[in-house]
């Protein structure tokens, strides 16, 4: 059986996967200075690395903000565009094996997509995400290198930055354990070390995203939230989201190919004529 290629084109990063017989073939991510270079570089490398001939490709599905720059068939192959929010939903459903959920796509900002079986639609979002982390880190840490920010954060102490329930109460409040956050950055001092600032920034972004997701489900029976996008790779996710799960009685799921879910969904959205 031939392969359907899904490509999520960002402004400088492109993610690509192949789907054959309902299975994902080795996702790949490529960075470049512009979306066209990124797409064609990713496509060529993906075919080469996986020993795929052009004739083995049935269709190419592209999505993402950078897809607007692609105005002709990729390498002469049949090429179509996938609606990004639909791709988010299909990819998250495939990876999580859930049908009903809210997909939290953590990119430069954050978009929220509700899935109820085949009903997949965008319900909103917030302007907080990876772009927020990078921008604030440039201002406060003089770097926007995610690896450096993460490395600093691993040496920081969140209690030096955030005000916790334990700081203001002698015992837990109803539904709020002692280590729950009372106020972001309220404990920060003027001479706070870079390590503490770094972990404070990451926790602030992740908690804001998690809170927005939970609030978006108010009035519904959805308790599952599937996290996708580059921010899911931050090691602090394994601490922030389990803590929010306990407080709010919800489930945050980070699937295996979380950063590639949109590209996977783009490929899955292809339907033969």
TrEMBL record:
GO biological process: coenzyme A biosynthetic process
InterPro entries named among the record's database cross-references: ATPase_NBD (IPR043129), Type_II_PanK (IPR004567)
Gene3D superfamilies, per database record: 3.30.420.40
One cellular component term from this protein's GO annotations in UniProt: cytosol
GO molecular function: ATP binding; pantothenate kinase activity
Alphabetic keyword roster: ATP-binding, Coenzyme A biosynthesis, Nucleotide-binding
Coiled coil: none
Alphabetical list of CDD domains matching this protein: ASKHA_NBD_PanK-II_bac
Protein name, entry field: Pantothenate kinase
Lineage start: Bacteria, Pseudomonadati, Bacteroidota, Bacteroidia, Bacteroidales
């Amino acid at each position: 059986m031939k392969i359907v290629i899904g490509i999520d084109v960002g402004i400088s990063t492109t993610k690509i996967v192949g789907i054959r017989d309902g299975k994902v073939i080795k996702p790949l991510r490529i960075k470049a200075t512009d979306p066209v270079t990124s797409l064609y570089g990713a496509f060529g490398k993906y075919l080469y690395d996986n020993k795929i001939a052009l004739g083995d490709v049935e269709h190419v599905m592209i999505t993402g903000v950078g897809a607007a720059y692609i105005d002709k068939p990729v390498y002469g192959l049949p090429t179509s565009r996938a609606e990004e929010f639909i791709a988010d939903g299909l990819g998250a459903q495939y990876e999580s094996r859930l049908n009903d959920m809210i997909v939290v796509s953590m990119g430069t900002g954050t978009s929220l997509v509700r899935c109820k079986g085949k009903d997949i639609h965008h319900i909103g979002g917030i302007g907080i995400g990876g772009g927020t982390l990078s921008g604030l880190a440039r201002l406060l840490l003089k770097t926007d290198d995610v690896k450096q920010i993460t490395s600093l954060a691993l040496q920081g102490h969140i209690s030096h930055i955030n005000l916790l329930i334990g700081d203001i109460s002698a015992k837990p409040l109803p539904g709020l354990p002692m280590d729950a956050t009372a106020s972001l950055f309220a404990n920060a001092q003027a001479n706070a070390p870079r390590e503490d600032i770094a972990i404070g920034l990451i926790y602030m972004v992740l908690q804001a995203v998690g809170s927005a997701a939970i609030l978006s489900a108010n009035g519904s029976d959805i308790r599952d939230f599937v996290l996708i996008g580059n921010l899911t790779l931050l090691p602090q996710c394994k601490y922030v989201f389990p803590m929010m799960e306990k407080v709010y009685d919800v489930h945050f799921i980070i699937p295996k190919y979380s950063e590639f879910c949109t590209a996977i969904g783009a490929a899955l959205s292809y339907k033969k004529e």
